[in-house]
Specification:
heterotrimer, A: 120 residues, alpha+beta, 3 helices, 4 strands, B: 475 residues, nine-stranded mixed beta sheet, three-stranded antiparallel beta sheet, 15 helices, 15 strands
């Protein structure tokens, strides 16, 4: 057995398919997005999503005509800041209750198929 | 172009430290290691649907104190989500300050005279721990499965990123040691490289001496000691130079430092770097105001550089001062000396006898009392060392009092009359040795000291025995 | 069937037993749930036990709280400890949360009795409840039509008399639109007014829990119970909860009411039709103007308000919400809970699990959101949409300088037949009038006001500035008093209200 000290995947730049936002989205980009989102898709599904995304994104073109250079982005609808918790230990989850919901469990841990492509 | 010429190594370091909080960064689960798997978890740590993060104030204050110690600007910050899938990442995204760190644009003067720029220090949450089962040598290759423990998930990490201002393995090592000393005096982390509460990644490149350009760098991970940091830097620099001199060039990549003393390329996942960062909607902006920052600053203890100069002023050897500060024992030493303890003895104990767990918990008055017992002759140097070891074991309890421990161990200073009687007895039993001693053979004194020690089961003060012998001879 | 307020009053005074109330509602469910399909699970045993506990408190001379013995239905994306919480998704089928949502705890503390978990569009993504993995819910007013969505089960349960009160969640209109289509009252509170802890996230910066009820008073009563600061939700607003009941007794004299010009289009009653918004049914626009006139008759000063950015709201929303959803739904990877489909390695297991566990609409939104955040597109899509969000905020602020509340239709149309809006863009337009409040974070609610095509209920939307729920309720109560009486739903057996 060995333990990963870091789960971070290796950081090597790759070429994402690029294109101007107004260009039609292609099946190559949809395949790339499906891999990022970890959803297995068949070729007909990729084609279906390509036309679906293209339709939705065609509406986004109306935004590209807007000059919003002096409008900052709004990320939080209500202006709160500095919300904290004191560093005081609270209750923990019941391990048996939590693991009873896991699709795979072994010896108090969550069991998964082998993890490829990580640091060992 | 400069084949065979001089090369300069350019190093930037990323130091990740686990902050010494009681609870995790975003949940009230204990931030503690070594417990049964998945026992220190809440719905937040497990990424259960419906759970929400709430920021730990103490973690932020520790981050601010480290930032101040590294001469950083303390800035408003927005947490972001870094999206990637991994079984030990419970939400399949990591919450991190990303491009709006709380600490930015600082510097650290490393002993030896070099100033290293600090690009930023930002807060983020740690992942859980994946254990790979099966496979030759426990490698991932050939593993039949993996087990995941989320106890570590959500532990607060501070990532301190230096600028590429470091030029040698020795400087890198000194930088890490100084960062570590700062973390220790601040109580921000226990900063143990070997145990993973401090992790260092090194970005390494080389360039012709005198050049200003930054060439292709490689990031080296898995550096779990200062020695591996130094060796990895030297190896990687030689590798780059070798490539350039052969007319080739390194590629930008992440490499793994392995036990074979080499760095190895990590095969990367195809989409690994498209993290789709965006502002974390479940957390509100963090805006440290001046009053809060000043309050944190006011509560900060003296930093290593100041502590070293105070130890220097006590006459401590610079190397000893470095060790004392590196062990976070400077407040103890300075406090004990302030209470009247002999500076030389106190520093010596800190350097020679206090490389022990619990040493940092000893109170200055306890150490001062111990040194006083020693200098007044109540304890021998050997006994003092034994008592100190016990004080470390019992630190934080009333039983750590040196007088109590000495009494328990039977280390009671001999009445001088009692000692004299024992010396007389030893002389009587070894008349020939006594004649030699009186004739000037100083080394036979050991016969009498040994006899007295035997009679007192080692508790007598050898120095005092020698004094009595000398008095008798000269009488 | 009686109101929640009347039930609580009777139970607290001991004139009616909570146990009897629960049985009445369970028998109504027994009679009509087969037709309506509002619930994913009916928690009859738990309801009986909770009602008995309420009765015991009353017998003990103690007060069970303002919702004593009131049966309540929870949208099945609210966590309930030990009771399956599915989000109407195969992905979470059978998942038993180890904790209760904060609102569920608050309702129980107020004496409410959980009677079941209601159906929704999978992970709250939809406007018709047709996207449920477990089959659609039917509108009690016409079983051939949708109840709206995504809180369609909650709205249908209230309309069908299965519960006097329900909780839903509203990300782009998911409380208000089904309330409108089912002739009920639905409130989306100010973002942060009600804790989101225990609400399974769809789009975190929009999601807000709120009540669906048979009348404004019941909705106000429930809102008072679930509102308030929760330290477990960092976005929860630390503010006192006003007496919403008192607001109902206030008049609207002198209040400035603005009808949103950009959302009053498409009908005979005026306003510029807007091609991108698609416009509203003429009957819906007529009801909107009648409601404005009713407020004027009651003493309000009614005018026309302009909130130009609402025309971009739909587009901005359908970039930001999927982006957040793509991240929020990443955790459904087959590792810790829910569905797992076996794979040779962890990554394949993730991909196959997510293929099998998510329905088509959820996949479409995850794909869209992942794309909008991916390298090279962030600024053009997500970044731009967040700026539109600020523009919306500013336009609302400007409108509220001149008006105390704003009015618009809730839904551009009445309940539509199943399958009619299979095209996603057509479906997305259902949310045109409701989305702007989710973008700004301001409160808004739907109040029934007459009927439209096919004699189906129409809802009018009252919008108010942040944290001005009381003022919004004052106006809603006035609308309710002026509204023409609504016919009863068409359920077989004829025994209901």
């Amino acid at each position: 057995m060995s333990e990963s000290t870091s789960s971070e995947p290796a950081e090597t730049p790759i070429e994402a398919p690029v294109g101007a936002p107004t260009e039609a989205i292609g099946t190559e980009q949809v395949s790339y997005v499906a891999r990022l989102a970890r959803i297995e898709l068949t070729q007909p599904e990729i084609e279906h999503f390509t036309s679906h995304l293209a339709r939705v994104l065609s509406h986004a073109r109306e935004l590209s005509d807007l000059d919003l250079s002096d409008v900052p982005p709004l990320t939080h609808p209500y202006p709160l800041h500095n919300v904290f918790r004191d560093d005081v230990v609270g209750g923990v989850a019941d391990r048996d209750e939590v693991l009873s919901q896991a699709p795979g469990a072994d010896g108090g841990q969550f069991a998964v198929p082998p993890v490829l492509g990580a640091t060992s | 172009m400069t084949a065979g010429g001089d090369w300069e190594t350019v190093i930037g370091l990323e130091v990740h430290v686990e902050l010494a909080t009681a609870t995790k960064l975003f949940s009230a689960a204990p931030s503690r290691f070594g417990d049964e798997p998945n026992t220190n978890v809440t719905p937040v740590c497990l990424g259960l649907p419906g759970s929400l993060p709430v920021l730990n104030r103490r973690a932020v204050e520790l981050a601010i104190s480290v930032g101040l110690a590294l001469n950083c600007d303390i800035r408003p910050s927005v947490f972001h989500r870094k999206n990637y899938f991994y079984p030990d990442m419970p939400k399949d995204y990591q919450i991190s300050q990303y491009d709006q760190p709380i600490c930015a644009d600082g510097f650290l003067d490393v002993p030896g005279g070099r100033r290293v720029g600090i690009e930023r220090a930002h807060l983020e949450e740690d992942a859980g721990k994946t254990t790979h089962i099966g496979g030759a040598d426990g490698r991932i290759h050939g593993a039949v499965g993996a087990l995941v423990d989320y106890n570590r998930a959500g532990t607060p990490l501070l990532e301190i990123v230096s600028r590429p201002d470091i030029r040698s393995a020795a400087q890198a090592s000194a930088y890490v040691e100084e960062v570590r000393a700062i973390l220790l005096v601040l109580g921000a982390s226990d900063a143990r490289l070997e145990e993973g509460s401090m992790r260092v990644d090194a970005n390494i490149s080389v360039r012709p001496a005198g050049a200003q350009e930054l060439r292709t760098r490689c990031e080296v991970k898995n550096l779990n000691s200062l020695r591996s940091l130094r060796n990895a830097i030297d190896f990687e620099a030689r590798r780059h130079i070798g490539l350039y001199e052969a007319g080739d060039a390194p590629v930008q990549e992440t490499r793994h430092w392995a036990e074979d003393g080499r760095t190895h390329s990590l095969r990367s996942k195809e989409e690994a770097d498209d993290y789709r960062y965006f502002p974390e909607p479940d957390l509100v902006p963090l805006v440290p105001d001046d009053a809060w920052i000043e309050q944190v600053r006011a509560s900060m203890p003296e930093l290593p550089a100041a502590l070293r100069s105070r130890l220097d002023a006590l006459g401590a050897d610079p190397a000893d001062a470095h060790v004392v500060v590196g062990r976070a024992l400077a407040p103890l030493v300075l406090g004990a000396v302030e209470l009247g303890a002999d500076a030389g003895r106190t520093v010596t104990h800190a350097v020679q006898n206090l490389a022990l767990d619990g040493a940092e918990l000893i109170e200055p008055r306890q150490l001062a009392a111990l040194v006083a017992m020693e200098t007044s002759g109540q304890l021998t140097a050997t006994q003092a060392k034994t008592v100190l070891a016990q004080m470390c074991l019992r630190a934080r309890s009333a039983a750590a009092d040196p007088a109590t421990i000495a009494a328990e161990l039977g280390f009671e200073a001999m009445e001088s009359g009692e000692l004299e009687a024992l010396v007389e007895q030893a002389i009587a039993e070894n008349p020939q040795a006594w004649q030699k001693y009186c004739a000037g053979e100083a080394k036979v004194a050991g016969v009498f000291v040994g006899a007295v020690m035997k009679a007192t089961r080692g508790q007598a003060d050898g120095k005092a025995v020698n004094q009595i012998l000398a008095q008798r001879r000269n009488a | 069937m009686t109101s929640a307020a009347a039930i609580a009053s009777d139970v607290r005074s001991g004139t009616r037993r909570a146990a009897d109330v629960v049985e009445e509602y369970l028998s109504q469910i027994e009679a009509h749930e087969r037709d309506v399909a509002a619930f994913n699970v009916v928690t009859a045993d738990e309801a009986r036990a909770a009602a008995a506990a309420v009765d015991a408190l009353v017998a003990d001379g103690r007060d069970p709280g303002p919702l004593a013995g009131v049966p309540v239905a929870y949208k099945d994306n609210l966590c309930t400890r030990g009771i399956a919480t599915t989000c109407s998704s195969r992905m979470l089928e059978g998942w038993l949360p180890p904790y209760d949502a904060t609102v569920v705890t608050a309702m129980a503390s107020a004496g409410a009795v959980m009677i079941g978990k209601t159906n929704l569009d999978e992970f709250a993504m939809g406007s018709s409840t047709e996207n449920s993995a477990f089959g659609p819910t039917r509108n009690p007013y016409d079983l051939g039509r949708v109840p709206g969505g995504s809180s369609g089960g909650s709205a249908a349960a209230v309309a069908a008399g299965f519960a006097p009160l329900a909780l839903g969640s509203d990300t782009g209109g998911s409380i208000r639109q089904p309330a409108a289509l089912c002739g009920a009252v639905g409130i989306k509170p100010t973002y942060g007014r009600v804790s989101r802890y225990g609400l399974v996230a769809f789009a975190s910066s929009f999601d807000q829990i709120g009540p669906i009820a048979g009348d404004v008073a019941d909705a106000a009563l429930a809102l008072g119970v679930i509102s308030g600061h929760d330290p477990a939700d960092s976005t929860s607003i630390p503010a006192e909860v006003p007496d919403y009941g008192a607001a109902l007794r206030e008049g609207v004299e002198g209040l400035r009411v603005g009808v949103i010009t950009e959302l009053a289009g498409g009908g005979s009653a005026g306003g510029e039709p807007d091609a991108s918004l698609g416009g509203s049914d003429p009957e819906v626009i007529e009801r909107l103007h009648e409601s404005a006139e009713a407020l004027a008759d009651a003493g309000a000063r009614v005018g026309r308000a302009s909130v130009p950015a609402v025309t971009y709201g739909l587009t901005a929303y359908y970039l930001i919400a999927p982006a957040e959803a793509s991240s929020n739904l990443a955790r459904y990877d087959g590792t810790r809970y829910g569905l797992r489909v076996a794979g040779a390695d962890a990554e394949e297991m993730n991909r196959l699990t997510r293929r099998a566990g998510f329905g088509a609409e959820v996949k479409a939104r995850i794909m869209l959101g992942t794309f909008a955040l991916s390298a090279g597109y962030y600024d053009a899509y997500y970044g731009k949409a967040q700026r539109v969000r600020m523009l919306t905020r500013r336009d609302f602020d400007a409108a509220y300088a001149d008006f105390d509340v704003l009015l618009s239709p809730t839904s551009p149309c009445v309940a539509f037949p199943f399958g009619e809006r299979s095209d996603p863009m057509t479906m997305y337009r259902c949310d045109t009038c409701t989305i702007p409040s989710n973008l700004s974070g301001d409160p808004a609610m739907s109040v029934p006001f007459g009927t439209g095509a096919a004699d189906l209920p129409v809802g009018v939307q009252v919008l108010a500035p942040a944290m001005c729920e009381a003022r919004m309720l004052t106006v809603a109560a006035a609308l309710e008093r002026a509204a023409p009486p609504l016919r009863s739903p068409r359920l077989g057996g004829g025994e209901e209200s």
